[in-house]
Amino acid sequence: MVLDMVKGIRTGLGLACCLACLLYGSEKVAGSSRLYLQHGKAVYISGETIPFKLSVRQDTPSPLDAVFVDLCSESAVLSSVVVKCSGPECSGWIEIPDTAQTGVYLLRAYIGDENGEMSITSNLLCLVNRFGNNDLNERRKHRSGSVAFHPFYVGESLQSPLLSVETDREVYGVNSPVVLSVKNQLPDEAGSLCLQVYLTDTVRTQNALSPIPPEPAGSREHPRLYPYLTLSGKLVPGENNLPVENQWMLLSRPDSVANIDMSLTDREGNFFFVLENEYGENEYIIQTADTSFPYSIEIHSANLAPPEVIPYYLPLSIEKSSYVHYSVQRAQINKAFEPAVETRAVQPVFSYPFYGIPDLQIDPSQYIPLTDFQEITKEIVPWIRYRLNGINSEIRVWDPSDRNYKSNPLVLVDGVPCFDIRHLNAFNSETIRRIEVVTGERTYGNLLIPGLVAIHTYAGDFSLVPLPRNAVNTTMRTFSPPNRSEEQTNSPLKDLLCWDPNWIVDIEREKVIQTSLETGVYIAVVSAFDRNGNYHQARTVFRVE
Amino acid sequence: MKNTIQTFLFLVLSVGIAFGPIRVTAQKPVPHVNIYGVENSAPINLSGPIYLQDSWSYGTLYLRNGQVADSAKLRFNILTGDLVFYHERFKKYYVADRNTFDSFILNKARSSFFEKYSGRNIGQKVQTGDLVEVLYQNKAKLVVKHTAIVSERSGSYEKDLIVPRKYYVLQFAGIDTEVRLTPRSLFSVFPDRKKEIRKTAARIRPATDPLPGFVALLENLGI
């Protein structure tokens, strides 16, 4: 009887557990995304650019703004770009610095979903320094555990039955058209095809080791990564156990047009700002709105840490091959034909100080030179009372509704809130470009402004005032790759004949590409990632003589 | 006995799982939209409706920096022609700075889309930059400016009265004309189509509320 009861309980528990698994096991994380990366050719020379294509496959469509792409060496990020990606596919290019040594590098792309969970993908690529610096590769050769990397591995097993590509002939002359015909039976949701035609080595190492990108170290420690540009950090209490929850954080940028953003900290003191249309190298100052208690602020890096170890090296057979030798020579020649880099036209963004049109605007240069701020406010700026009393100072602004002077107005220096106004007295007619005054009570989001005094200096970079209390400054360098045409260079020598990352092919289509003066064996690869992330590839080989 | 215990446990545990605490996933981080407002000063010694609506309506504000403030508590002040928003944190209402937004929507019984008037000035009644409600838009655009005048009372203890006014402007082919909601007012805009306007108006027979009838007339005329 007891045994029966125990068995009954056990079976009941089992059934309940199964039901729990059914209920929770099938649940998918909202907005989880998978990222796939393709790049142009097999071997790159330093100073060249790497064209790449990013395919994002998401369970649920979510807004996507920024994909981070970087080229990593061991413990170093050589270059990075932030690609604006408004759809499931986007493309761009990343520059290889001239100083990059010969070796195997990691090209990786990463993105965060709505929950801040990271999705990362990476490819190994081979890079040759055009000045012959191969110290890095030599060191890796002698390191235990390093494996030879064969850049011409194309993976025979990846050939897809749904995709095929053919050329009309096997041998072409220089500067002659090559007709590529593609048959595409992939479903529509697979997206566009990526076509790359590049020069390959005559001795292809098909049986070589399949390259497996190493796990990027440091990626796991990254707290949150969102699919758009964010600046996040953590508020840390100073001495006592001060509360870090529900503290307003202010983000400002030294600029002639003042703009402030606000963020409320969560229970652990985390905060984040969404940076919209913020591309380029910008300095940001983050501070607490409440300066009565000491806090310190930690800023999280928007970029992942580079991998500590890349356990691959370029074997001597490839390093000393004629292919690499000619590639370096070609790169040197192509430098002479390199077109000027066209920068992406930045869309004009409405730029307006957050406090609107000021009630009063004073240009001190229109008046006689005045030696300090107290004199300036007394002589030429009405509606402001500034008093320096020993080490303390006080500033008040006229409030027309109360017909009285209100104390503690918001003081901005070059657009940055400055709560310690003792430093203002050092300003004089030579340093101040203009003073703007806003009277009356205002609100900007959750920031209550009892009155506002904005001082714009000739320097314009907030350098004349020390960093306020509870503030930290950080610099973010983010940019999107400029628009590049398919014809990347006017050089008569090309090893990458075609790179079309967004080739829309209905069922069957032909494409004509032009060969250059560079002879050798070329490989044409057509590839795509379907909705489930399966890689489909078709390729064909032709010769140029 | 065994089956009873099994069924009982299964039911109890499955009900517990199905109606147990719901898993809360992290919310999508939404950028904070800041509306800039000036302290609102309420008029004194006036009686009558100051606002277009009797109560607050939840609306959407399209800021000039590209951000969109959703679910803002908005009201339109017809006396000053300003948009007033309620600040939940400070428990006060502020006048939204006109330089910081382009348009807004008030959601009440119906959604009303407001934008800044960009046509020529109609005397002192409708001027460039005024906030007007867009009633109809096709080849022509019909907008209305909600405003008010203050009527002085003669009695010494009586407050001055706010009298609402509406000015309708039809914008067509770059010409802005003040119209009243009658078919006849279209004659000056379309002098060649007087007969057609009369016929269409007779067919439609505008209801007692002239606005839907006038909009239907514009629609039928294909303007």
Keywords:
heterodimer, A: 545 residues, mainly beta, five-stranded mixed sheet, 5 helices, 10% helix, elongated, B: 223 residues, alpha+beta, twelve-stranded mixed sheet, globular
Characterization of this structure:
The complex is a heterodimer of chains A (545) and B (223). In chain A, 10% of the residues lie in helices and 40% in strands. Chain A contains five helices and 35 strands. Chain A has helices at residues 2-25, 135-141, 316-319, 322-336, 373-379; strands at residues 33-39, 43-45, 49-58, 66-73, 76-84, 89-95, 103-112, 118-128, 147-148, 163-167, 171-172, 177-184, 193-200, 230-237, 248-252, 260-264, 270-274, 280-288, 295-299, 312-313, 360-362, 384-389, 392-399, 404-407, 410-413, 416-417, 432-438, 442-444, 447-449, 452-457, 471-478, 496-503, 508-514, 520-529, 535-544. In chain A, the strands form ten sheets. In chain A, strands 2-8-7-4-5 form a five-stranded mixed sheet. In chain A, strands 11-35-34-13-32 form a five-stranded mixed sheet, with no helix packed on it. Chain A has a five-stranded mixed sheet with strand order 21-27-30-25-26, with no helix packed on it. The radius of gyration of chain A is 30 Å and the shape is elongated. Chain B is α+β, with helices and mostly antiparallel strands and 223 residues long. Chain B is built from three helices and twelve strands; from the N terminus they run αββββββββββββαα. Chain B has helices at residues 2-18, 194-204, 210-221; strands at residues 36-39, 46-47, 57-63, 68-77, 82-87, 92-96, 101-107, 111-116, 131-137, 141-151, 160-172, 175-179. In chain B, strands 1, 2, 3, 4, 5, 6, 7, 8, 9, 10, 11 and 12 form a twelve-stranded mixed sheet that branches. Chain B starts with a helix and ends with a helix. The model of chain B is unreliable at 8-29 (pLDDT under 50). The chains are: A mainly beta (545), B alpha+beta (223). Chains A and B meet through helix 1, strand 16, strand 17 and strand 28 of A and helix 1 and strand 1 of B.
